[in-house]
Amino acid sequence: MHSSEVAYLIFDVEAIGDGDLISKVRYSKDKLSPDDALRRYRDELLEQTGKDVLPPTFVLPISVAVAKVDSNFRLIDCAVLDEPEFRPHKITQGFWQGWRHYQRPTLVTFNGRGYDLPVLELAAFRFGIALPDWFNVNAKAYEQFRNRYNTSAHIDLMDLFSNFGSMRMIGGLNLLANLIGKPGKTGIDGSQVQDMYHAGQVGEINDYCRCDVLDTYFVFLRSRVLTGHISLEQEQELVDQTRTWLESRAESVAAFQHYLAEWGDWTPPEGERGVVRDKEPESRTPNPSPPK
After folding, report:
1. Does the pLDDT at position 281 exceed 70?
2. Exposure pattern of 250-278 as b/e (b: 16+ CB <10 Å)?
3. Across residues 210-233, what is the average pLDDT?
4. Cβ atoms within 10 A of the Cβ of 187, count?
5. Which pLDDT tens digit goes with each residue over 91-103?
């Protein structure tokens, strides 16, 4: 595969709490063990917010799934990093090396700006990984890759659908996936990852992460219909091709088996085939090139 074939990297991160860090930063006077510190912090979050999901500042990545997508929005691959070891420092190193290897393709996430990217940026800081091409802080503001509105560097689908936070995207990725007939959450969500990890279910976590990336991919395809980059007919062709691609690999990848078992087909309203513009806006290019 030539690196130029990959125009987008769609990814998702699952992480676990760093009990030692939590103990040192939050409970330094109490001298808590890592496990006790983690338990106390989760209990506090649960009481305060109703959820015990840790913020990205106190976690380590233990699963990163990445889908490679070409400039015509075709799925090339969907894999998890550092399998079967799943070591946080190798996962972090592999993610950023991959982004660089494929000539800095556009990153695609759902709420990646609020969670996934901060986790990987802080992990790079922790492990001493230099990212001058991602932290291109000397570039003009609108050319910096971390600029919220630089969608050639990163498309956060939650930003797109919430109009950059103008409204709350209640239901999130699960809702958007279900709107187009894809599985969404099927018994596991991010709040369970910590306990699953302690139970030794690392493989299941990575399967869940892969399925989240597939949901994100299909939501990304429909978003490209919404923004006029592809027609509804083209999107449906890509969906069919991807299903065939998953079926051909399902025997060896449990996550693909599960995803196909939960698969739902989308059909347009009776008599409707979607709206296709007669003329493209002058400011749009059909297949935007990845940032250089």
Report:
1. no
2. beebebbbbbeeeeeeeeeeeeeeeeeee
3. 97
4. 8
5. 999 999 999 999 9
Two structure tokens written together for 20: 């030692």
Return the closest-CA partner of residue 6 out of 133, 99, 90, 113: 99
- Whole-angstrom CA distances from 282 to 26, 151, 237, 279, 291 are 53, 18, 26, 9, 20
| AA identity, residue 67 | A
Residue 281 lies in a domain: no
Residues of the domain holding 104: 3-261
Residue count of the chain, please give it: 292
User: For the chain, what is the domain count?
Assistant: 1
Tell me, yes or no, whether 36 lies in a domain: yes
Sheet holding 106-109, edge to edge: 75-80, 59-69, 8-17, 106-109, 154-156
Specify the residue for token string 């330094």. Answer: 28
Q: What is the pLDDT of residue 75?
A: 97
Q: Which pLDDT score is estimated for 283?
A: 41
Which CATH number goes with the domain that contains 105? 3.30.420.10
Give this prediction's pTM: 0.90
Q: Phi/psi zone of residue 271: left (φ > 0), alpha (ψ -120 to 50 degrees), beta?
A: left
Confidence at residue 271, expressed as pLDDT on a 0 to 100 scale:
57
Residue 166 CB coordination number (10 Å): 7
Does 283 fall in a domain?
no
Q: Which residue has the tokens 């676990």?
A: 16
